[in-house]
Amino acid sequence: MNTEIRDCQNCHLKFTIEPDDFSFYEKIKVPPPTFCPQCRLQRRMTWRNERSLYKRNCDLCKTSIISIYKPQSPFKVYCHDCFRSDTWDPLSYGRNYDFTKPFFQQFHELQIQVPRLNLMVTDCVDSDYINGAYHDKNCYLIFASDEDEDCAYSHSIFYCKNVYDCLGVHHAEWCAGDVNCEKIFNTYYSQDCFDSYNLFFCTDCANCHDCIGCTGLRNQSYSIFNQRYSKEEYSKRLAEMKLGTVAGFSVVYEKARQLKTNFPVKYYHGNNNLRSEGDYLFHCKASSSIFDCQNIEDSKYLYIGNRVKDSYDGYAIVDNIELNLEVISHNSSFSKFCLSYWHGTDGTYGDTCESCNNVFGCIGLRNKQYCILNKQYAKEEYEALVPKIIEHMKSMPYMDRNGKQYGFGEFYPSEISPFAYNETVAQEFFPLTKSEIQKNFSWFEPENKNYKATLTSFNLPQDIKDAKDDLTKEVVECEHNGKCGDQCTSAFRLLSSELDFYRKANLPLPRLCSNCRHFGRMRSKNPLKLWHGKCQCAGEKSANGVYANTGTHSSHAKGESCPSEFETSYSPERPEIVYCEQCYNAEVV
After folding, report:
1. Which of 161, 276, 399, 410 has its CA at a distance of 20 to 30 angstroms from the CA of residue 311?
2. SS3 label, residue 356
């Protein structure tokens, strides 16, 4: 089949369906999408609440619990023990399929009835205020994170200990403010650094130690703003910087930021990939438009994936799986349009189902097969009824309040999501104003906490050495004071462990609430989108007026323009000097 250009029924922009895409959709017996890739991603994200937590009671045992479902939501919510107990039967909510109603209307009616799990948390200890977590201990406000201990205010951290305010960090200890780093120790406010320790404000450094404000270093030590010093001189200059003070911290941060802007960047983050396009890719093959992925093959439009083959449109999918379409929080094969479908196979429109096979439109099932809308069928009955439902979905699509149609082949409509848009990760990647949200999605008006701040951020100690133990009793006013659009809580408290951490690290205390800090880290990463780009080595002057080529590269001579072109997450309007991998390696590695 030839390439086809279509109009997205949501944003009305044109998008392309390639011959390989048609082959994939035909293989899994699904019609091509009517939404563009970006709108499909945004819609999936409206179904994932990671960081909005509420207090409410379990609807079965009545115990006070923390939940991702607000108290006023219409859903039944069970605590972890009740949800996994035998005191209720998900099949008791089963119903016959009604061919007079659109499928998604019937699915939503079932949603309202079947109990939901309060948090996506497994085997965690002394960590009540977390979500999307496994095997964490003594952690607070960490999300989508596993195997961590004594950590707080972080997202997507794994195998970490004593880590605060980090994003996308693996195997780290005694770190704060880091983004997308791995195997680091005693490292602060650094990004894209690996196998390193004792770093401050560094970017793109590997196998380095004792560096401040450096960019693009390999196998270096005792360096400040990319200049090498003796160990003694480095220690002297570090002391003179007074990083424990707000003034000293700010000066070094700004100088490091300026150095980074003048340094070339590779057009994507990652290595060991073959014919793959995206960002933060490792060991991927023949895949495109994938982000934060490793060990991916023959796939497209994935965000956060590991060991996945021949799959499209996934978010947080792992564990040697294949042939999936439009799935979230998923580790099953041969499935489509599923949300939290674990350890099963052949699921279609499944929601929070575990160890299930061949289910359609089911919610909350465990160890079941051949079920439709939570009703049990014989194998022959199931296989006869499913094709009829698919044809019914095509002939009677669900129509949302804005006239968009959802037939078979589309993910769940956002308007039947259990969460408001501003409760979900969609607001982090596709931020909208309240009025914009209300036009196309649902909006939840956050509760006015009316925090009585006892201390302004300006009056926090300017030097960490002056921070006293009684600071943990204060309610600190966030520097943004609710005016930034980053879901600011307007005020916050300091944990005693947090205060001890900053004293040990000799760094000033944070002036922003945890939400504002999180959104700031999110903005430091490139968007989940690609633009066509050209290597800027030698031939093109970057937006900041710098020609970066300092030598002869194997692909072209000094002063000549590099001919390489690529797909990159750096938009043309950005100031970075973007290199192809060959030119970048010649300059940096």
Report:
1. 399
2. coil
Q: Is residue 448 within 8 Å of 232, Cβ to Cβ? A: no
The pLDDT, as a whole number, for residue 262 is 87
Residue tagged 């990939």 (tokens): 273
pTM: 0.93
pLDDT tens digits along 3-35:
999 999 999 999 999 999 999 999 999 999 999
Report pLDDT for 544: 42
CB 341 within 8 A of CB 411: no
Alpha-carbon 450 to chain mean position? 30
- Taking alpha carbons only, the member of 331, 313, 333, 330 closest to residue 322 is 333
The residue ranking higher by pLDDT, 391 or 548, is 391
- Stretch 353-374: mean pLDDT: 98
- Residue 568 pLDDT class (50, 70, 90 cuts): very high
Cβ neighbours for 60, distance < 8 A, ≥ 6 positions apart: 78, 79, 82, 87, 88, 115
In terms of C-beta density within 10 A (0-12 exposed, 13-18 middle, 19 or more buried), how is residue 3 classed? exposed
Coil vs helix vs strand at 328: strand
- Report phi then psi at 431, rounded to 5: -65, 135
Helix H or strand E segment including 20: helix 19-27
Burial 424-451 (b: 16+ CB within 10 A, else e): bbbbbbbbbeeeebeebbbbbeeeeeeb
Average pLDDT over residues 559-575: 92
Q: Tell me the pLDDT band of 555, cut-offs 50, 70 and 90.
A: low
Residues 6+ apart with CB under 8 A from 511: 457, 460, 478, 479
Q: Report residue 448's pLDDT band, with 50, 70 and 90 as the boundaries.
A: confident
pLDDT at 539: 54
Residues near 560 by Cβ (< 8 Å), separated by ≥ 6? 538, 539
Dist CA 50 CA 226 (whole Å): 38
Q: Which two structure tokens, joined as six digits, stand for 328?
A: 């979230």
Whether 437 shows a pLDDT value over 50: the answer reads yes
Tokens in use for 80? 């972890």
Give Cα 256 distance to the centre of its chain.
Answer: 26
**HSE (side-chain half, CA atoms, 13 Å) at 283:** 7
Beta strand segments in 13-135, E: 14-17, 54-57, 64-67, 77-78, 116-117, 121-122, 131-134
* Rounded-to-integer distance, Cα 43 and Cα 202, Å: 35
pLDDT of residue 547: 43
Alpha carbon separation from 72 to 79, 131, 388 (Å, rounded): 16, 20, 37
Nearest to 31 by CA among 371, 366, 396, 410: 410
Phi, psi values for residue 296, rounded to 5°: -110, 140
How many C-beta atoms surround the C-beta of residue 524 within 10 A? Answer: 13
Separation CA 371–CA 381 (nearest Å): 10
Residue type, 112: I
Query: Dihedral of CA 34/36/39/41: which sign?
Result: positive
**Local structure of 382: helix, strand or coil:** helix
Please give the pLDDT value at position 450: 79
Question: Is pLDDT above 80 for 552?
Answer: no
Strands (E), 177-263: 182-188, 194-200, 209-212, 221-224, 227-228
CA distances from 559 to 218, 379, 541, 552, 556 (A): 25, 69, 11, 8, 8
